Each structure stands twice: as structure tokens, then as C-alpha cells.
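INFO batch 0412 | record 1 of 1 | parsing
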Amino acid sequence: MAEPFVFHFNPNPSGEPEAMYISDILSACSCCKNEQIQRFYHSTSLHRLTEKVLMELTLGVAQKIEQSCENCGTQLEESDVLATTMTFGFADDTGCIVGFRKGDQARFQVLKNRRLDPQVVPAFDFPDDAFSLDESKVEEKLERVLNPKLLWLELFAAIEEDPEGGAWAEASKDCIFYIDTDEEAHETLLYELSTQDNAVEETFEIALDSQPRDLWLKKAEDFFAPLESWLSAKTVDALLEGEIFATVIIRKQPIIDQIKRAFETAKLEYDFEHLTFNNIRTPTDLLFEGELNIVKVAERAVYTGLTPGECARLSAEEIVGNLLRIWR
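INFO prediction complete | emitting C-alpha cells
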């Protein structure tokens, strides 16, 4: 069966991108004891995802119930809920986080390398590998951080406490953050990394304070979660003044693969050359008036604190939504 196109994102009324998650409720009618399942497709801020948010989404599912018993017609209440699940899937295909709740207990499961499937059949029993929510355990299993912005904040805190020697961390398998107060040491390390195994042909090096160039419909000043919104003014000034050097090394191919898969699943046709998708069109030759350059996608990811994979998917979905007249 062909993979259906799933919109991971949708813009809220102010245009900020929100990421979809799935809520499932298992309830039992207080009158006839009939059990039934209700499903919701809701969304949460892409840029504000944290461990606390995941817990709040999981604990809040039961409050969403709004249906009558299919057997006797009795209106179901929150007190009729037996169990719930909340499923959040990362758009860079690193996996899904499933939050289970029964009574006052909540447990979590990580499904690595799994895509969000709106048609998946929910399970309500705690799986054998379920655990109490722990951000470090989630990130270890996914091989990515929940929120790259928070990782940057940790690195800047580390460099402030100990300015010698620099610091680095992986935000995802395809994205590494480097920070240092010594420009020469920073450049030396970047050079060593870029010359290993022909990495210079496979990666981008993007400074954290690089102002991104325009991305099809959006100008840099229109991007949500710009650098200045999640870094302190003191840190931004230090970057601009050359007191701190922060660079992201990003692999090219995963960005290309993510965009190609999105376009092809949406049945779009395109040309690809010089790291740019152009002549993007529907099977009926409805043409997208613009192009998508993967360097610009990488710059946007860095500037707004996303992983390259999820920024690639977001950028592709914006084009698909525009062509299908879903996003305006």
C-alpha cells in the first residue's frame, strides 16, 4: 500500500506552525458499561516542545471526551474514562513518543524510527518497556533532543561556567552543535571535521547567528522562533561581537531525502539540481511559483532552533499545502 500523505504541521491563527499529535480515549458507559474508543487529532506548538508539555498533553487527554454511548445514548463524562493514550511523532522520522494514562499513573514508550500514523490502532495497556517520563531517556532512545533550542541554552551555560576548551553536542544524528570562545580553536576543529571522510562534500557549516535568506513565501523576519526569541540579548550580542563562536554541522542528504519523500508522497513532480528543488508542480501542472533550496532550509533550521529533518518536512509541507490550497 502506498504511503498516504500526512500533514504533520498546520499554522495556528497567527501563522505559527503547530505539530500534530493523536489522542485516544477508552471509556465505559456509566449506564450500560459499553466500552468504546474516541480519537482526536490535535496540535501543539512545534517550537515549544518540552518534557513538561508532553506530560501535560498526556494528562489532559481524558478532558477531551465529548460523545454519547453508542449503545444506550448516555452522555459520557471524564469519570467514565478507563484509559488514554497520547501519540506525538517527530517529523524528521526519528520516532514517536506514546504517553499512556490509567487513573493517576502515566507511563511512556518510545517507538524509534516510526512515523506518525493517523490510522494506527490504539493500545491502552502499559507496554512492557514503558517508563516514567525522563527527558534524557527519551532522547537517548530517539537519538535526538526534544528541543534543539534547549540544547543550545545548555551549551551556552556550559561555556559560561568553563570558557576553556569549547563544547559540543549532537542535536540529532545529522546535526552537531559546536561552541567555543576561541575563534582559532573553533575553526581548527571545524576544519578537521570537514576534511574527515570527504565530509566537506556531505555537510554544511552554518553559524548560529547567520541571518537566513528568504524561503519561498516567507522572509527571514516572518520566521517563527527567531534566534532573538530564545537566546538572551547578552548571548546574541556575544555572538555578534565575536566573543563566542557557535556553528552547526548539518548533513545534506537527509534534508534532500526528507523533501523528496514529502513531495513524492504528495504526488508532486519537481526538478532537482544545484541543491535546489524547482519547477515544483502537481500532476495537473499546477505550478508552484518559487523554489526550495536546501541551504536555505538548513539556515532556517539553525536560526529557529529545529532539527534539519523537521525543518525540511515543514518547508515541504508549506509548499504542498500552498499548492493544494490548504495553507494560504
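INFO post-check: The chain has a mean pLDDT of 92.
INFO record closed
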